[in-house]
Amino acid sequence: MHGNVTRPPGRTSSGLVELDRMLHGGFLVGDSILVAGPTGTGKTLLSTQFVAAGVARGETAVIAVFEEQPGRYLERARSLGIDLAKMIADGRVRILYLRPVDLSVDETLHAILALVAEVRAERVVIDFLSGFELAVAPSFREDFRESLYRTIATLTATGITVMMTVEVLQSFTDLRFSPHEISFLADNLIIQRYVEMEGQIRRVLAVLKMRGSAHDNHLRLYTIASDGINIGPSLEGYRGILTGIPGRVVKRAKR
Ligand SMILES: Nc1ncnc2c1ncn2[C@@H]1O[C@H](COP(=O)(O)OP(=O)(O)O)[C@@H](O)[C@H]1O
Ligand SMILES: [Mg+2]
Fold this sequence. Notes:
Largest sheet: 9 strands, mixed
Bound molecules: adenosine-5'-diphosphate, magnesium ion
Low-confidence stretches: none
């Protein structure tokens, strides 16, 4: 899962060799990353592989999970050969299970910061952001964003690399956050989505944005198997991929 890639200084592994290539060597240490996609595309898997890559390098990590059963979370990781339970037992990983109904936004974000400080985490995952936002009363949404921006800024300012996931219906335009807010919130944006090709539902991902670095602009097919996310070829030769129903580009013979 983590090969011997020579990494440029200041870069850190995403947890996926091929994604590191797309990122021209990995994430920049201390950056924030937003992973957006519909349910089941593998956002949680990606963030789990991101955590495992840190632990493999001797780092510690905090995972904040919203509205998912602890058992289910650990079980999913285990089915991919990632022994989160052992990482927790070894003190490398701490998971914070949050039910927004129990705490206010500020209390929640404060709990994350406190745990990060306690274990001196180098990687932080905030999984399923939209669940959190949905639980916030509309009149408090603005405050929520403010608090979230501040929390992310506080974390990244100390060199912590932060990955957040957000659930969207299908397309990028379904994101509840506007593109402006996204660029404010995250240095890196990765989108995952479903496409229909030859009667099959397949998954594609792309690096939409990486602040301060060049990156691969291709949409890439990927699969999920018992060894995690496997990024495959780019979808050259297709058009309209982001519509969800791509067609082949027909090359016309020159006259
Ligand atoms: N061991 C596994 N082998 C194959 N596919 C798996 C395995 N574990 C999970 N998946 C696939 O991963 C998907 C769930 O990924 P997840 O990260 O929970 O998605 P998201 O967080 O985007 O909702 C499921 O749709 C399932 O098909
Ligand atoms: Mg998830």
